């Protein structure tokens, strides 16, 4: 199940998401331009090695890219390195589809901090699985998993256009797409599939996104949102101006900022119905028609139509008497 796009507009330009994608692509292009030996050396220097991070081993002095005591910086450099075209293409596609809305929900600077923290949580979770491991971990999958976890809580009902089994293309709710992705990571980890993939990093990053999103999102952005101007559940109640909704300002109509566009859309629909004389406003009166033109005129009883005159019946034809001397009444 490969996501292509989501039907969830944003209110800001996601510059941080664009910058992260650009940096990942640039680093990958530089990496593939190196010789096989140079690429392996770069992976050892800038990849997150659990044994080094937890102090069980040290890189040789000629390979160390960071001074002693700053080996943890490899966690951040490893987030921007990838091992192949499919690796970077999949990660950047997911970030392109889901990153812009998460950045919209928390702002540029908060999103950058959130992204890096999710990457740190993913690296730590992967390292705790085997603190003696000397295999470097690279890729943006852990930080990206945090973005997916945040999207899961923010817009579970948003429609995602997916490419299913490489044949079918249709819209699926985000809660199903992201839930399927998370269950797949857990299943693959439990079954031991793909030994070269850090499944625990994906799981830890996703959980970190679920935990951190309530702390990083804007206060007026509700959780469990459906991607439209109205919340999925009854946080805001249209048509009740006397009651203040959560996130509404102390002055004004009491409509929260995220519901203002929804109210404007409703008003535009009512105006269009009135202009087209649909609903209770009825239709235009025809020439020569005597009808009540008030808003409720279409529901007034009209005069009954005259019934058509009955057609004449055929009856029984009269029989001519053949014998006049008989009873005249006998026909």
Characterise this structure:
The model is unreliable at 229-236 and 241-252 (pLDDT under 50). The chain is 46% helix and 5% strand. Strands 1-2-3 form a three-stranded antiparallel beta sheet. It is mainly alpha-helical. The longest helix has 22 residues, at 85-106.
Gap from first CA to last CA: 93 Å
Give helix % range. 40-55%
- Strand elements, count: 3
Name the overall outline. elongated
Q: What pattern of helices and strands is seen along the backbone?
A: EHHHHHHHEEHHH
- Biggest sheet features: 3 strands, antiparallel
Strand content: 5-15%
* Largest sheet strand order: 1-2-3
What kind of assembly state do the chains in view correspond to?
single chain
* Low-pLDDT sequence parts: 229-236, 241-252
- Computed over alpha carbons, the radius of gyration is 36 Å
SS-based class: mainly alpha
Query: What's the mean pLDDT score?
Result: 79
Query: With helices defined by DSSP (H or I, 4 residues minimum), what is the helix count?
Result: 10
